Amino acid sequence: MAEGHRIGVIAPHLDGEYYGRLLPFIHQAVREKESQLFAIQVADDYLGITALEEPIAFGIVDAWILILPSASAAFLELLGQSEKPFVCVGFQSPFPQGHSVLIDNRVSMSKTVNHLIEHGHREIAFVGNLDQYDLYERYLGYRDALEQHGLPFEELRVINADDNLLESGILATEKLLQSGVSFTAVAAGSDLNALGVIDCLQSKGYSVPQDYAVTGFDDIHQAAANYPSLTTVRQPFEAMAKEAVRRVFDMLEGRQFNETEALIPAQFIVRSSCACAERTQFSSSDDFDNYMQSLSQLRTSLHKITVNNYKMTRGLIIATKEEKIHISNLFWNLCHWGCLALWEEDDKGQRHLVVRQVFSKNGDAVPPEGEKYQLDSFPPISYLPPSTRLGGEDIVILHPVKSDLQNWGYIALAGPLDPLNNFVANDLSRHSFTILAVALERELLFRQVRSIAEKLEIVARTTNDGIWDWDLETNKIEWNIRAHKILSGSKVELSDAPSSLIELVHPEDQSALRFAFMRPYEKDHPIQLELRIRGLDEQFIWVFLAGDIVWNAAGKAVRIIGSLTDITEKKANEARITQLAYQDALTGLPNRLLFKDQLQQAMEDRARDGEKLAVMMIDLDRFKIVNDTLGHQTGDLLLQRAAQGLRECVGELDIIARLGGDEFIVLLSRIDGVEDVACVADKMLRMLTKPFLLEGQEFFLSASIGACMYPSHGSDVDSLIKFADLAMYHTKENGGNRLGIYTEALSSKRVERFNMETGLRYAVERQELVLHFQPQVSLSTGKVYGAETLLRWHTPDGKIIQPDEFIPLAEETGLIIPIGQWVLEQACMECKRWINAGMPALVISVNLSALQFQQEHFPDIVRKVLKDTGIQPHNLCLEITEYTAVQNLEHSIRMLGELVDIGVKIAIDDFGIGQSSLLWLKKLPVHTVKIDPSFILNMIEDSDGDAIAKAVIEMSHSLGLSVTAEGVETEGQLMRLQQLQCDRIQGFYTGRPMSSDHFIAYFQEISNWVG
């Protein structure tokens, strides 16, 4: 053969009458092929592991031999998917490409039962583990023999043993006897089961074979040496091993097989347990020699077990002397090389086997500690001893290292097979594997305990807490340095006597201290209490005392250990927090919590005297603009000034509180009627309309006020606050700057407002918002100058909601930002559509809300919309109200300047109704002034309206601004505006708001008419 192979054997164990006798023959056959053997022992009786779960060495091994079902379903599936040959010994292959080497269990057991029938037995029982493949085949052979002779099958005569060992044979026999079924012979599925049957029968006073005949299966060493000697079936171990190895190598070399299953015949061995021969009779000298050899091997094996037990105990003693157990002290058997690799994760979460311990008794090379390996490439081939390589006399043993705590990894051992392993299960290295796993657990727990101890030592050394230890037997307390330091400011000196602690404590707290330490102590009830210690200068030190009981093995309390913490500062902070909990930090006014308490008290007083009280909710209008433009520092100053002014408007017995933001609430503790509320509200509104001077700048405020009364409107605190809030919101929705009194209708209106707000949040994505366009016409040419964009909301129920109904709500909730963005984008898209339709470069006007105008990045938004829609800046006119423009003049100048630099036009809307003057327009970079419709409506009949319109037009022209008159509805108004040389008009007379398509048709019609 040109090149050897690596053959893997997977077996539950590597010793004993079955595995220990089969493995040497496999090893010899592999050596004859100049190849290398890897034996993987997978069973762990302590953990209940019976199969190999992970593909260890899968990338190294060329072919596999599986002894009994010793691999998990996952491993078998991996093996079935690979191209690696494998042979199953003692069970059928689960995959068609796998081969099986089986002894003829069924025929052999049938011969055994036939032999008992020939002795005249008609009631034969069967004992064996029916869950195991080969044992079930033997059970079928038992059934075959009964059927062949026409004997009835009795289910009670069949006992399913737990395993193939001696104890299971004893237990099975006891079940058989207890069942009451009659039997004269027992055919056991294994020799150890059979020996257990004999032991149980003899212990009950029965004789074998005189009372009962017994047969076994396997022909283990004890079978010949037992009394009586056991009639059995001899397993063909050598033939099975050679056939398995032959098939593996034939498959490796590409040979084909007619059959994938090989049946190896077994030999029936007749001895005295079936009554064929007496113990003293031997058919030949060879039989006698074999008998004596079995006795000799039994004595040698028992001696070996004794020596191994001594070595294992000695190795364990040596290993446990140190903090860390080393595998060289645990594996004292014939293994001379070892490598322990444990599972560890790297920084990327990848799992590797990392070498952590190695040894070599012969001085062979070992892998360096810390070396990483993948599961399928362990053990490291290059480091294995020369004696294990192709054709070598030693084998490589692999074993998983597991415990109850975790899967630790794998250990690889190298050495010769123990010649006595084929006699009994005397390889005590099994226990070494268990000890190793437990040792790893111990090391982990030791490291954890040491880490905790180190942390506790650091905490005790560095903590600000004092530590105390009360020995209940000596009745003395030990205090650490920190505890003495904490209590150093007390009047009484601290000692180890418990009474000294009580003397330190404030008299009012001494009873709580005595109660905490009162016997009998309770388990799981730690001591925790806050105490005052009497200090110098009549001051008190607050301490937190905590402790827990230490119990001895008898359940007696022997010590109390605890800590002492200085919480004086914490208590002072709590007092300050309690004070702040009822006071607004910014204005010094009561907060909501204190207001509710005082309102509750006032309601109880009014319930007794039958008088009335009122609750007023105050919200400063548009105060958010101040914060957004001038910053919260200026806003806070303005709030403080406003709060001071509001407080001066109410009586000494009344209460005003700040709820947060720009919201205030007032309790008028005693009123005669609504007239008293109106009087207070009038004072407040007049006070707020006066200019507030801050940092050289004047600010004008207004407020929305809502009020309700007790007991007519509500009978509890929350209801009164809620109803006042509803009245305030109703006032705000209707323009603000006035008082509103609660009515029951407002509650339903509040529900409507909530529904409108909810619908508005989804209006854009549901495409419910619609743009209309109202033409703007030049009075000098009669041509269409452009159009103003107007927004409508078409609800799903077909209702059309006008802007004055939902725009204030959108501004209040902040929804105006996304809605305004959508309007700007859609208007510019429509303008581009008009231009593409061949219309001249019209101007599209879009109204800006105050919130949009306060956005610092709004000019960037405009640039992006212009770029995305493709219209030129001069096609866009942005309209802001007069109020928005003058609210923060500095911000307006800067923001409008940036927009003008972009190239868009700016128009001041609703001019004339605010508090500004035309002179202010000199400071603002604007292009157009739009006269409010209220001045146009009656300008023909009302001389004041006409005079205002004339003044606005003349002064605007003097400043270089154009003028657009809104709300033009009659020809007379048009003619008068022409006389006043107004530049453009907009209103129902020249065109109502219309859709984009209608606007195109309108433009074409008016263009033809003008033409």
From TrEMBL:
Question: What SMART domains does this protein's entry cite?
Answer: EAL, GGDEF, PAC, PAS
Which residues are in the EAL domain?
753-1007
Quote the Pfam families the UniProt record gives.
EAL, GGDEF, PAS_3, Peripla_BP_3
The GGDEF domain covers 611-744
Keyword annotations of the record: DNA-binding, Transcription, Transcription regulation
Q: Where is the PAS domain?
A: 452-524
Q: Does the keyword Transcription apply?
A: yes
Tell me where in this chain the PAC domain is found.
527-579
Q: Which domain of life is it from?
A: Bacteria
Keyword field contains Lipoprotein: no
InterPro entries in the record: Biofilm_reg_signaling, EAL_dom, EAL_sf, GGDEF_dom, LacI/GalR-like_sensor, Nucleotide_cyclase, PAC, PAS
Q: What is this protein called?
A: EAL domain-containing protein
